Amino acid sequence: MSRFFLGVDVGATKTHALLADEAGRAVGFGQSGPGNHEVAGYEGLSCALQDAVSRALDRAGVRSSAIAGAGFGIAGYDWPSERQATLQAVSTLGLDGPVEVVNDTLIGLLAGAAEGWGVAVVAGTGCNCWGWDRARRTAQLTGHGWWMGEGAGASELVWYAQCAVARAWSRRGPDTSLTRAFAERCGASGADDLLEGLCQGRYCLAADAAPLVFRAAAQGDGVAQEAIRWAGRELGSLAAGVIRQLGIEALGFDVVLVGSLYDGEPPVIEPMRQVVQTAAPLARLVRLAAPPVAGGVLLGMEQAGLRTAHLRETVLESAAIACTAIS
Q: What is the pLDDT of residues 211-227, one digit of tens each?
């Protein structure tokens, strides 16, 4: 009987499931809603898994009994104390083969690092950073954002820019075109109304306002440019911390950049590169080109004892096609 391998990428907004055969070719893809237990609870995680995986199985015409190994990258899975509840949610899929669950940052690392180890820095709505050394020893951050001093995803970038607007209004900082951009975004009549509304909860600036910061920076706004440089330095510091935890400062390895904030490159990437390469001069920053769920498939193959080096490119390429076709 043919064997298949399952990869699942669980996030705070959506869940992806991908099936591949023994040659690494994607044969089924499924998508469902958020599964991060911090957002949806463990019951929500179970539902998201069941929905996405059943869709992938149906599209592939494959039964779950044919899955020989599965890898799950799960946003919000940050601590050993969460492992039992996470595995319990996975067990509702009724899989017979071996499984592994990791933080979703690590499947991005598997998909993006040529040698399967190094550091991955996620910067989307939020941010996170994990790493593996050659022996798969793990290093991590808390994954809990700005209130643990871990910036900067789009949410933190907008927060930083919002503070700059407040400083400009109170004459503690330079003027910025972000004042008008944010006021227009919120429907405010001007700076006074914007800041009063933000303070009183009538207005809200969230991660989806981040493109306004990049647009202002591209138009020459110095405050917006500094906000983006700040984000890059902060993201670099996340990687540098994980690098030092692993003790790989003298080695050459990939730092995989995962997430939409990097779409604004190079303004955010160059200051990040400076910080990373100060800590590890031989580190290489690489953008993740494949969907992260491809790393889940590779992890699933490893659980079944497969060597994945010769399958990696096929998995990545076919995953990109499968995910694009459905999305």
A: 999 999 999 999 999 99
